[in-house]
Amino acid sequence: MKLRFLGVLILLLFLGRISTAQSAADASAAQNQGTSDSTRHFEGVPIITGGIALNASFEPHENNMNPVVAPIFLVPLGRRVLIESEVEVESDITYSHREYLPVTLTKSVEYAQLDFFAGKYLTIVAGRYATPFNIYKERFDARWIRNLSAAPLIFPLGDSSSNGGQLRGAIPLSSSAQFSYAAYFSAQTTNVSASSARQSGLRTALFFPGARVEAGFSFNRLLGENRFNRFGTDFTWNVRGLPLDIRSEALFSKVVGNGYWIEGAYRFSGSRFPRWLRRSQAVVRGEQYFHPSEGVPADFEAPEVDTTRLFGGWNYWITDSVRAQVAYGRQFATENNHNIWTVGISYRFVK
């Protein structure tokens, strides 16, 4: 299993090198065009971007490989309207207890929304959008953005997309503080590739640009068969003077449990480091999940007992578009203490 994954990893790395070389050739050709083309102004150009990733995890008695393709489409319509969409296709290849399980292929629409910029402090969103509960779903879920390929333990308890409407924006309170908000309502949809729950909620945050600190609060109310509240807090800090990012989230719910994670990532970008090391990033994450007194509803994926997990990882940018990852983790749970190894490679493209 590990040798097969290594072969696929080398193939993706080779394809990433070819793509980078082709991009450089295209850029060189563009520079050779006439001055009339270089002075032309383009406004509202559609963009296709996204990423391709291959991740694998190795645990006792079970190995998983997850190839993912996730293109993103951005289509501006004038100066006030933007259509954006992401489609994700993911496969799960599992080798457990000396045999391969049936391969699954999941196709989903992460979001397909229309953004109307109604004013300086208000954007109206309609369609399918990533539910703004905490920040991991909206900001860090993409495989080429994650610092660690393994998602936090509490992420499945707040991971969802909504079908409905949303009001969001940011309001400056002073020269040193900014207030942001997002309020939404979602209807229940049972489509296999674009399902959603009937729910409503909001997220508010304070951002301090001078200190590069943001602190947020989230509330969500499920309105379907299972009706309950979820509360969340999030914190990010881009340390000034150091290439260090600190991220954290917490979730609180009597029905699905409580938990938190905190993660730090340090980029070796200083001139005092060797040139090859400057493309590296070290990551550590600590997290805990506390199981509720009663069982978690079947719609949610969560550990069956209280669980603590620690991760340490290393990211290396082979090119600006290709990143390799490796991480080691240790899970602590009742009668289920074990090691976790993850490796992966991702490629981000822009057309």
Briefly say what this structure is.
The chain is 11% helix and 55% strand. The protein is mainly β and 351 residues long.
CATH-derived architecture: Beta Barrel
**Separation of the first and last Cα atoms:** 34 Å
How is the main sheet built?
Answer: 16 strands, antiparallel, barrel
User: In terms of structural class, how would the helical and strand content be classed?
Assistant: mainly beta
H and E order: HHEEEEEEHEEEEEEEEEEE
| Largest sheet: spatial strand order | 1-2-3-5-6-7-8-9-10-11-12-13-14-15-16-17
State the helicity in percent bands. 10-25%
Please tally the β strands and state the result.
17
Global mean pLDDT: 89
Percentage of residues in DSSP E strands: over 45%
- What best-fitting shape do the alpha-carbon axes yield? globular
Instruction: Please tell me how large the radius of gyration is.
Output: 22 Å
What name does the CATH topology carry?
Porin
Number of domains: 1
CATH homologous superfamily caption: Porin
Unreliable stretches: 1-39
Number of helices: 3
Assembly state (oligomeric): single chain
CATH class: Mainly Beta
